[in-house]
Amino acid sequence: MRKSVLSFVGLVLSVQASARCGAQTRVVTPLTRKLSLLTSQRALPSFSPAHRSSSVQNTRNPSRSSVVNTDHMEDEIRRWIAQKRFEFERKGESPGDDEMPEVPALIFDIDGVFKMGGRYADFGAEALRKVIEAGLPYVLMTNGGGGRTEDEYAAEINSKLYSVEQNKLTKKRIDYVGEDQMVLSYTPFNTDFDHLKDKSVLVVGSPRCEDLAKHYGFKKAMHLTRYSCKHPLMNPFGPSGCEKDDCVVETGPEVWDENFEAVLVFTDPSNFFEGIQLITDVLLSSRPGEVEFEPDRRIPVVFSNPDLLWKTQYPHARFGQGAFRLSLEACYRARLEQLGLRPEEVEERLGDFVQYGKPEITQFSHSRRAAMKQANDMGVKISHYYMVGDNPLSDIQGAVNMNELAERKGTEGWSGMLVKTGIYREGEDTKGAEVITENVLDAVEHVLQTHSDDIEHSKRHRDLKKRYATS
């Protein structure tokens, strides 16, 4: 690249020298206009050939008259521009990208920020419109998902936000969020557990989670309810969620051929008791109906959400998946102790519980990668991350964890912004929130004001790129 640029500079200087020797008339062509813009953005000497004559005499030393073919030079310049344009397009760049503008990125929680239960707030739609108009990268990261795919949840948000947006008849309908901007509690399951996709796994959560698991590529996924229906005596109160005809105990020996190699908790199970009982059985044995305990059996239980509480339309917070993990952990511990395992053996087995979701760094890292990809597509760099959420224990603590990691690695910092529309109550421990606002719209306006100069510079940069693309 450097050699090509130097060659081009030499070529431009030669033509400029020849132009000074010829007529003074300045001929402006589409090529010279584009070349002028290109050289001004790349800090190269500007080029404007004096005329398009086929040759220029060496007037300084007529005896050594040499002929410079400017038509040939222009052909060379055209080829150079075509080559550079190809390289820029291949890299997703354009002239002027050596110094990409830096802007902040926003990571938003969903429940308690944009919606309370199933009710979406109009200020959420306005907040995202402002972020989009400012040209900032953003991601929606939730400890929920309800068993929907990222695309399904994005479509729901787009529909719901537009339906509650004020003065929507005077506004152009937009997509507030896309599939690639959604990080659900279980989104990392799709990328982090490829080694389990050909294995038999037990899926826990809403009924649609088995289809979701298969959508992610877990070919041998079986839902907890289907497992319970296949082995109806495992739950002494009868399996939940299946028809009675499906739960008739077959005569003859029961077949225990599942041999699960992992338990994936996508969402909270609606029946805590059944979940605790059957998962404990599966952890203790690959064939629970035949062998009570296999000492060498060790499989992971992966949880997607550590939240003890979450916000619904009910006036007070409700138990979440974190409560289910605490319950399962306590019962599993007691069962292992009853089987005679030593305390250190019990703790070692409890180490097979793997946690995803906010405030885990693994979850925040997924949202960071999604924001960085979006920023790269937009032609900007991220200068700082803002986590906007309603839960100090998951949203704000996660931002604090990421900021500590960033300080050690020398990467972009993180700030936690707490809103009052969710489970947070004034006077509670904010876990280090740097800003507290009434709602997500106020949080967005705070970021826009704080980074107004950078955002304005980014807008000018985008306008310049558009003018170049159409010149």
UniProtKB/TrEMBL annotation:
Start-end of Basic residues biased regions: 458-471
Sequence ranges of Polar residues compositional bias: 51-69
Family matches, as Pfam families: Hydrolase_6 (PF13344), Hydrolase_like (PF13242)
Region Disordered, residue ranges: 47-70, 452-471
Cellular component per GO, a single term: mitochondrion
Gene Ontology process terms (BP): glycerophospholipid biosynthetic process
Signal peptide region: 1-19
Keywords (A to Z) from UniProt: Signal
Listed name of the protein: Uncharacterized protein
